[in-house]
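forwarding from the other thread:

> can someone predict this with 2-acetamido-2-deoxy-beta-D-glucopyranose?

sure thing
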Amino acid sequence: MIPIIINILWISLCLHGANSAKILGIFPAPSFSHQQTFQPIWKELSLRGHNVTVITTNPLGNNSLINLTEINVGFTYEHLLNSSFIQHLYEPDSVFRKVYDIHRLGLEINEAQIMHEKIQHILNENETKFDLILIQVVQSFTDLTFGYAAKYKCPVVGISSLGVFFHFHDFLGNPTHPVVSPDMMLGFAGKINFFQKLQSLLYNLWYRLFYYWYILPNADRVARKHFGDDMPYLGDIERNMSLLLVNSNPVIHAVRPNVPNIVEICRLHISEKKPLPKDIKDYLDSSTQGVVYFSLGSNVKSTYLSVEVRQEIIKALGELPYNVLWKWETDHLPDRPPNVLTRKWLPQQDILGHPNIKAFVTQGGLQSIEEAITNEVPLVGIPFITDQPSNIKRIVELGMGQMVEQQTLTKEKLKKAILEVAGDPEYKENVSKAKSIMDDQPMKGVDKAVWWIEYVIRHNGAKHLRSQAADMSFFEYFMIDVALFLFACIFAMYYLVAKIVSAAKQCTNSNNKVKRN
Ligand SMILES: *[C@@H]1O[C@H](CO)[C@@H](O)[C@H](O)[C@H]1NC(C)=O
Ligand SMILES: *[C@@H]1O[C@H](CO)[C@@H](O)[C@H](O)[C@H]1NC(C)=O
Ligand SMILES: *[C@@H]1O[C@H](CO)[C@@H](O)[C@H](O)[C@H]1NC(C)=O
Ligand SMILES: *[C@@H]1O[C@H](CO)[C@@H](O)[C@H](O)[C@H]1NC(C)=O
Ligand SMILES: *[C@@H]1O[C@H](CO)[C@@H](O)[C@H](O)[C@H]1NC(C)=O
Ligand SMILES: *[C@@H]1O[C@H](CO)[C@@H](O)[C@H](O)[C@H]1NC(C)=O
Ligand SMILES: *[C@@H]1O[C@H](CO)[C@@H](O)[C@H](O)[C@H]1NC(C)=O
């Protein structure tokens, strides 16, 4: 009996096959909420014995992870803060401008990171080989990093901490119906009206023209400078991606059909509860009337708010019958009401887990929403960028919270929304229902992500999961050749029938003439 068990164990170990691969992870976006989603993946991969090298703006810095090498490119946070993307964050800028800004900023930041001496060292010594490259895909921000895949010629797995732009769906042959799955940049949610449908279709077309004719060729030009002129076209490298892991929340995201090499993951960053710092714990414990937790996340900083909006928020919070814990990024909050406590940084997940928290005022980032649902806290959303407006609209639709728009925010509106969400138990009940759906998964988010990554390592890619649609031209996919043929047939038939009819007419006419004569 025992030898059999040992045998089975041994065989399963061998079949595992993914033992100790060399993995390069590239996570260039200077955004804590994005990095927080990926950290558990690279940690877990290293604990499983893979030799993992990671380029990140937020290293874990845990020396006990001996199989992990982290290259800290956190200096590029400064590029983000200086960028026009951040400066335009609070203006109702056009979506076109935002798409352009994301691309420009991505090129700038990725180039600065590639020039980093430690990365140059790896790129220039020719011994290092990798078995797999993980690339953070975030909109058109990380196109340049696919140059690494040209250098190491190994399978690539893309990971996104939110949804992805159209071109990634195109690369893997995934359908992007403008009405069923409108792009997140449009901020739509639920059933959309006629004008939104029109807008979605036009955006769908515009985005492709802009991406394939401007953004991608531009990124390709820059990539050639760093990875050599003999690399394949950048678009072909991206298209060659083996697998794409997309962060999709089963509660708030609209269901969409996915090809098998697009795998949905969620709740990667949800961690075990840790004890709160003493001062915060005392504050929460003693606030028996309830606490509102206020944080606009890690990208949107409260200090960027216009003075008028900030004054309205402060007045609203001051009039609440609750205490308020506010993540405010400077030491001093002007006109701070007595019921408001600020801290530059707060352990959000653990705070949301405290029983006295009544409501969470958030910008509506996916990670914050996941934390709120996990801890059954109803929400008040003040959305800003990318997926935040559509996330919050969905939360409102599901009866889990209220939305207050930043452009029209007043003291009354914010106060009313918070009082309603904190006071009506139905909101919390609806969040609890959502939690029970979100919890009901066959495995934890990080285990699923790691399983799929090792799957690609075991099979040296995942060609067998690739949809034929991914390699079809526009003409083939939309069957334009077939449609043209059918049109031609119909036209020919029409022509033939018309000819016969007119011939028959002529015939009867001439018969009649003959008769009359
Ligand atoms: C490091 O990798 C080895 C296998 O290469 C594995 O046995 C070990 O558990 C890993 N250690 C840590 C701390 O990740
Ligand atoms: C470092 O990682 C180890 C292994 O998971 C963990 O036990 C330890 O708590 C981590 N240390 C810190 C400071 O996070
Ligand atoms: C991982 O690979 C690097 C070379 O890329 C090597 O220097 C390092 O020793 C390896 N780490 C382990 C734990 O094998
Ligand atoms: C950001 O702006 C500051 C102040 O204008 C400037 O000193 C700094 O060099 C800029 N940094 C980058 C990376 O552009
Ligand atoms: C690595 O290869 C490149 C191109 O083949 C070459 O230019 C470079 O000198 C090599 N570097 C080393 C350290 O051998
Ligand atoms: C496509 O990916 C495979 C590994 O999955 C790699 O060997 C090949 O070089 C890649 N081709 C291009 C054009 O990137
Ligand atoms: C909670 O959900 C139920 C069922 O979906 C809905 O009828 C109700 O209106 C929601 N509650 C709120 C406060 O929106």
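Confidence is low (pLDDT under 50) at residues 8-17. thats all i got for now
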